[in-house]
Amino acid sequence: MMKLRCVLRFVLTVPLLFAAGATQAEVPAKSHMIASANPHASEAGLAMLRKGGSAVDAAIAAQMVLTLVEPESSGIGGGAFMMLFDPKSGQVTSFDGRETAPASATPRMFLKADGTPMKHAEAIPGGLSVGVPGVLAMMELAHKRYGRLPWATLFQPAIDLAQNGFKVGKKLAATIRAYPQMAQMPDIKRYFYHKDASPLNEGEVLKNPELAATLRLIAKGGAKAFYNGPIAAAIVDKVQNAPVNKAGMTLADLAAYHPAERAPVCGTYRTYKLCSMAPPSSGGVAVLQILGMLERFSSENLKPGTLSGTHLFAEASRLAFADRAKYLGDPDFIHVPVWGLTQKSYLAERSALIDPAKDMGTAAAGTPPVRGASLDFAPQRTPQLPGTSHMSIVDDKGMVVSMTTTVEFVFGSEMMARGFFLNNQLTDFSFEPEIDGKPVANRPEAGKRPLSAMSPTIVFNPDGSFKIAAGSPGGPMIIEYVAGALIAMLDAGKTPQQAAGLPHAANPNGPTILEKDTPLLALVPELTAMGHRPVPATLESGLNIIERTTDGYIGGSDPRRDGVALGD
Length: 568
Known about the structure:
This protein is an alpha+beta fold. It has a single domain (4-261, 389-567), classed as Glutamine Phosphoribosylpyrophosphate, subunit 1, domain 1, CATH 3.60.20. Helices cover 32% and strands 17% of the residues. The chain is built from 19 helices and 23 strands. Strands 1-22-21-17-16-9-8 form a seven-stranded antiparallel sheet. α3 packs antiparallel against α5 (135-146). The longest helix is centred in the middle third of the chain and has 21 residues, at 307-327.
């Protein structure tokens, strides 16, 4: 079972910017739209769309800006998953830019001398947690297939902002204040603190000429300029000579990185078709499982904020997280039974375990039908932590991108190279390589991609036309946020902005977590009577959603963060 205590500790400490349910204006558009986690990023993406750029072009421009203005959540030192719908071909594809473990990684890399696993707080800072970054290579691959504007053009908004400076936003300032212990790391102290040891405040101008120079190199030389040469050398030097947890990443590790184009995992919910990210993300499988197990219940019974809706959602989540802990991992290293886990017959079998009147307690993994491989893994007990961002985009030609991007925890490894933060993605592996004598599917191995919960999703109408692009940050809770938002829209008719602002309930197979300071807490007595262990917590999602309507598009951005939807 996942160590829920650790999960709760981290969801409680992430700063909350706005209350759940806070209202923002619904954003309409006729031709194109982007919803991202920061106004500067949305403006950069919109500028590319106005130039006739594709949704991929807009995503690249937005990501470069997020590297500067939201470094606590994503950047070129991290990784990403991109879902893409091409209306010209009618095909849905996905691009995997997940980080990989260097050749020096071993299954026991996070065990101490006595054989016990390190604490996450010990393993995150420094070089041991850094995976080979994947986002730039992935974006270049997508751009070669679907870009319309020149590669270099996409970098200019970020270069200008980095060189001239930007005003520190509410979320970045709040995050710096929430983690004062990070000032022990030299890069954090140098970049975010004044000489008098006080942190940057909201509204102060922050410049990053070092990042501007890095982006110029990549704009001119492509992703190769990142994975070879002085930028790669700076990454390796930082990892090998980290202030804590020195590690063995090499130039060969960076040069060997390759992104992947993967078939998405798709399924149906009521009359709709959904496509989301396949392994090494667990998100697509888990979202489809939750929806598939709830499909037998009426939309009225799934209404957000009600006792029945909260209970049923928690039960389906338990079952999905039990399967996730046992079966999901990097498909290049283990057999992941995606087909079996998403079969309607298997989901019906799992759904039958849901009692509408009683909590089931800790769920066990099921036994999905398997094609040609045995599945003898132990469930992992290591949680993944939040530090992520999401954007949804649609362009003039109807191309859709739903992309979730991350450095893993807040400010990743807390180290910078050439103006950007390096991820701590390797702490998404299970720290315990074996449990009860059985291997854990998500154990560390050289070249392996760690398990993710990122769930960029695209929904289609019964006629195959695009309906919704959605996704969220939030560590393992991403699965809950995305599934909950889709139920709110598809079952309860909520708009993107309404769905993004709803209070959250979650259950990653432990206590039933209810977003604090929301009306959901009124359900505590009744949920307790049903057998739940309700726990109030800060649940900082960051949903960014676009929906196609008869008049064009409407977008919504989570009121808990400082994102915005923009379009024409």
